[in-house]
Specification:
CATH superfamily: Vaccinia Virus protein VP39
Number of helices: 6
Number of domains: 1
Helix content: 10-25%
Order of helices and strands: EEEHEHEHHEEEHEHEE
Strand order of the largest sheet: 6-7-5-4-8-9-11-10
Radius of gyration: 16 Å
Distance between the termini: 40 Å
Shape: globular
Strand content: 25-35%
Structural class: alpha/beta
Largest sheet: 8 strands, mixed
Number of strands: 11
CATH topology: Rossmann fold
């Protein structure tokens, strides 16, 4: 069985924590501000764009559960069903080293066992799936919002292909959207080829653009 590459805890510019994978030279979030990036890309451009009383979220790459925690904190009266794909979840030791004592909900999310739907607070349903995105299967129109937070195309090119975005388009509901920090031309072309209506939006700190893609 494949194992996760070694990961090291780093503090980003806004004081929030992220993980660094030396083998890929990739961070789980922006080193220029992990929380700032997540809030900007996934919450402000994603969750807040959904004018629904019930939102079905798919996250590609749970990582440290930062996006999930921010979504939970933002939910208000909205019912949220949150499915997270993470092939290599953090270990108990890694979760302990993150010292999430002041962020109880984030720790609770990370400690959820895989494939066990859990209502973490009233109206926030969470399920972790340790499934490779390429093998993930879901019915058509299953999700309203996709947080596409995989490692960069240079590190994981197999997760940024035409086939992947065709799959994402199929499982997304009409008027649903996909948000990602990535704004590479080749990625946007794959999204458009799959049928998405692609928007370029201002990016988080130190990044000129991000991408939001709608299924109309």
């Amino acid at each position: 069985m494949a194992k996760a590459s070694p990961r090291h805890i780093k503090t980003s510019s806004d004081g929030s924590l992220t993980l660094w994978v030396p083998e890929l030279d990739e961070y789980y979030h922006s080193i220029h501000g992990a929380l700032t990036e997540s809030q900007h890309v996934f919450i402000n451009a994603g969750l807040k764009a959904m004018e629904l009383t019930e939102v079905r979220v798919l996250e590609v790459g749970l990582g440290t559960a930062l996006n999930a925690r921010l979504t939970l904190e933002q939910k208000g009266s909205t019912q949220i069903h949150y499915t997270a794909l993470e092939k290599f979840p953090l270990t108990t030791k890694e979760i302990d080293l993150l010292d999430l004592s002041s962020l109880e909900q984030q720790g609770s999310i990370l400690r959820c066992p895989p494939f066990v739907p859990t209502e973490l607070i009233p109206g926030f349903h969470f399920e972790l799936m340790t499934t490779d995105l390429r093998r993930f299967e879901s019915e058509e129109f299953s999700f309203d919002l996709i947080y596409f937070d995989a490692f960069a195309p240079s590190a994981q090119p197999e997760l940024w292909t035409d086939e992947i975005f065709e799959k994402m388009f199929k499982i997304l509901a009409v008027d649903g959207c996909l948000v990602t920090y990535c704004a590479k031309g080749v990625v946007k072309r794959s999204m458009k080829a799959a049928g998405f209506e692609v928007e370029r939006l201002p990016g988080p700190p130190r990044k000129r653009e991000m991408t939001r893609a709608w299924k109309r």
